[in-house]
Amino acid sequence: MTALRKSQVLNVIRRAYGPDYAESVADRLPERIDPHNAADMGLLSELGLTADGLFDALGAEL
Question: Could you tell me the superkingdom of the organism this chain comes from (predicted)?
Fold first, then answer.
């Protein structure tokens, strides 16, 4: 899998958690996020962004 662009990740965060939360974490996200990179996934986890959390937040959209 290729790295995701920051804008792609922010779009998902906006849908799942709303625009205010997306804006609050935007400055902490790198321009590219690799789902196979431990450091990138650790950062997302620190921000409260986990796969399980996204699935729960998006619910029927998936």
Answer: Bacteria
C-alpha Rg value of the chain to the nearest Å: 11
Which pLDDT tens digit goes with each residue over 4-54?
899 999 999 999 899 999 999 999 999 999 988 999 999 999 998 887 777
Q: Which residue has the tokens 């937040």?
A: 57
Q: How many domains does the chain have?
A: 1
Q: Nearest 5°: phi and psi at 20?
A: -65, -45
User: Which tokens is 44 given?
Assistant: 């997302």
50 lies in which domain range? 4-61
Q: Which of 5, 62, 33, 61 has its CA nearest to residue 49?
A: 33
Tell me, what DSSP letter sits at residue 36?
Answer: T
